[in-house]
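Posting here for the record, re: T5A.
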Amino acid sequence: MQKPQFVTLEGVEGAGKSTQKHVVCELLASHGIPFVETREPGGSPNAERIRELLLAESQTPPSDLCELLLMFAARADHIEQTIQPALASGQWVICDRFTDATYAYQGGGRALPKAWIETLQALVHPAFAPDTTILFDVPVEVGLARAARRGALDRIESEDRAFFERVRASYQEQAASEPMRYVVVDASQDAGDVSQSLRDSLTHRWFL
Ligand code: T5A
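Prediction output follows.
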């Protein structure tokens, strides 16, 4: 029996993480592997309350620093209440976004200093990181058009295109710097082809 893995899904808005999550779940289920699905920001009762604060349109939006601290406050609770107990009980954890999103959005998009994020990461989860991160890489205009077709945008989704170009560039840099952890999928293909590429990559990585 493999040690339970912490698997994270990342990408710009509309990359197709939620659409493709079933591929990961079905693959694990077909191998009899127990798992839980969760997300960030959120994933525990307190963190879901912080999520509302973070994503709601507001007359008085949080400052960039406040946003960064709230992401890690939510994450601290999520790790303690949801992620660690699941892994300890032998379940894999499939998480829609994690700390790489903070490097991409608050570090890349908002241009906050990387050292601040490293400091908070060292405080909140010093010796804990995803085993596998799937990056759904898609051109920003394609992802934003998909997100817009889906419906109303939240506070962060309403940022301009340059913001998301910095987010994508940060994700690509992170993936290039940790090729053993990252599985990069070309998410600009149609959904069926993305599913097939993902299934092939994960089967090769985990089961062959
Ligand atoms: N955030 C999060 C930070 O700023 N810092 C952090 O540390 C963390 C953890 C979360 C927001 O918080 C930010 C990032 C986010 O802005 P969210 O509501 O959870 O917000 O939103 P996202 O995670 O961005 O989820 P999205 O739904 O926007 O993106 P997905 O999941 O990648 O996209 P998905 O699957 O919902 O697809 C979007 C639309 O495209 C279609 C789908 O049917 C859907 O309509 N689609 C395709 N169409 C054509 N071809 C394909 N291949 C398609 N794949 C999907």
